[in-house]
Amino acid sequence: MRQTIEQRACDLAVYIIENQATVRAAAKQFGISKSTVHKDLSERLPHCNRPLYLQVKEVLEQNKAERHIRGGLATRRKYRGV
Predict the structure, then answer these.
(1) What is the pLDDT of residues 20-47, one digit of tens each?
(2) CA–CA distance from 82 to each of 8, 77, 78, 79 (Å)?
(3) Other CB atoms within 10 A of residue 16 CB
(4) Separation CA 66–CA 6 (nearest Å)
(5) Does the reported pTM lie above 0.90?
(6) Which residues contact 55 (CB under 8 A, 6 or more apart)?
(7) DSSP labels for 17-68?
(8) Using CA atoms, how far apart are residues 28 and 31, in angstroms rounded to an integer?
(9) CB atoms near residue 68 (< 10 Å)
(10) Where are the domains of the chain?
(11) Rounded distance, CA 40 to CA 6, Å?
């Protein structure tokens, strides 16, 4: 059975908070696109569950601050053949 959009947004937020996951990882786990995850978390979640939105926002901001480091490590692995 298909769940509601609001429930999916809450489930995504809980998954990201518990696992400190990225938007890409959450999208892969739930089988949806990254843009859907972003839309659920940034537009739909604040209307249905504000406290949960504030928690997930902190994790997403931390991921955003660290993404250049992750990108550099990925490039390093690519060129070292690991």
Answers:
(1) 999 999 999 999 999 999 999 999 999 9
(2) 36, 5, 7, 8
(3) 22
(4) 28
(5) no
(6) 13, 17
(7) HHHT--HHHHHHHHTS-HHHHHHIIIIIHHHH-HHHHHHHHHHHHHHHHHHH
(8) 5
(9) 9
(10) 5-80
(11) 8
